[in-house]
Amino acid sequence: MTLSEIPRLGVVVPPENPTAEPEFNRLVGDRMNVFASRFPVTPGMGLRQMLETYNAVLPETLGNFGGMRLDAAVVACSASHYLLSPEGDRRFCAELGARAGHPVLSSTRAILAACEALGLTRLTLVSPYEPWLTELSRGYWEEAGLTVVRTVLVPAGAPGAAGRRFNPYEVTTEAILERVRAEALGGDDSALLFTGTGMYTLAALDELARETGRVLLTSNLACAWWALRTVDAAEPGEEGHHLLRRLAGRTDPAAAGAA
Fold it and tell me: 66: which DSSP letter?
């Protein structure tokens, strides 16, 4: 397959997100080419107003790909879609896909698609968000029919640092591992959902995959999983990123369609 023939994935990300494209490229490897369009900068806005703005301008931001042929697109911003109901999110993605002429899915809907394919009903939510946004996330999953058995907050900065400051882009691998090992690995078999496309998770999941048999799911991992299946680029066996292979070993391929 020539470079021009490789399936193309469009990714919409917040302007300051340093994580999504590197993780997507690592996850999909040479099976997809990844292209990004970024939400506009919103100086002076509070977090909730910024997220509302992202939803308002999402059709235009997807339109910034112009006439480029895309095979699928994902909205790599979980937080803005927590403002929607799961059903409202589904309708929004369907409308975006109809306008774009190719499948479009939010990271939140990709997670729900993965949960359905995996038969998951119970989650431990690992969140880098401020408490109010974490609760909004919890409400989204519970409205979708999932049970959130535990919430683990992961502040930015080094473990044990004074105070709590929430910024997904500054969460360290060490902080993720410290919080998950202390608060999430014992007591039940719920899947560990690491929410947010801006929190670097791959290095932490590399270690956790060796420590636990529980399902490990992130916003970016779910998007890559969905995108590869949507364009029929998922390959069984030993090829592909080990975290995707780990998921593939648990899923029913027939159930891997879009949610």
Answer: T
In angstroms, the CA 189 to CA 216 distance is 11
List, for residues 168-196, the tens digit of each pLDDT value: 999 999 999 999 999 998 778 899 999 99
Which residues, 6 or more positions from 67, have their beta carbon under 8 angstroms from its beta carbon?
none
First to last CA, the chain: 29
CB 140 within 8 A of CB 129: no
- Residue 16: count of CB within 10 angstroms of its CB: 12
CA 160 to CA 101: how far, in whole Å?
48
Query: 0.70 cut: is pTM over it?
Result: yes
How many CA atoms are closer than 13 Å to the CA of 83, on its beta-carbon side?
A: 14
Here the tokens at position 256 are 């891997």
- In a 13 Å sphere around the CA of 176, the CA atoms on its Cβ side amount to 29
Contacts of 129 (CB under 8 A, 6+ apart): 79, 137, 153, 166, 168, 195, 196
In this predicted model, what pLDDT tens digit does every residue of 212-247 receive, in sequence order?
Answer: 999 999 999 999 999 999 998 766 544 579 999 888
Q: What is the chain's mean pLDDT, rounded?
A: 91
